[in-house]
Amino acid sequence: MKSVPLYRATAADLGSGLALVSVSGELDLYTEPELTNSLASAEAATVVLDLSGVSFLDSTICGILVGEAKRRRGAGGELVLVGNGSHATQALELAGIDRVVRLFPTLHDALGSLLVEESR
Description:
40% of the residues lie in helices and 32% in strands. By secondary structure, it is α/β, with parallel strands linked by helices.
């Protein structure tokens, strides 16, 4: 039997309809409910999900991310991912998620891009 993976999440409202959710640990079937709750707790229209601290990500999570991206788009927002060269980046690119959801190499790049778009 697999032990419960360590999962941590922090969320911050950045104002202007933008929130940051940072997660770390292993993201898989066992942590899917916690990730779903973390994303749901971010009430902003656009959420930046920082996956820099993720050590493992499975196909269950890829499905959750695509679903969350579609849900946020339908509500006029967006889900943006930050991989920072982590294991998550490789898994997302391999699964093709980066073709459906914007994936940035750093948090700085993601926030910079979103703030420039907002100012237009």
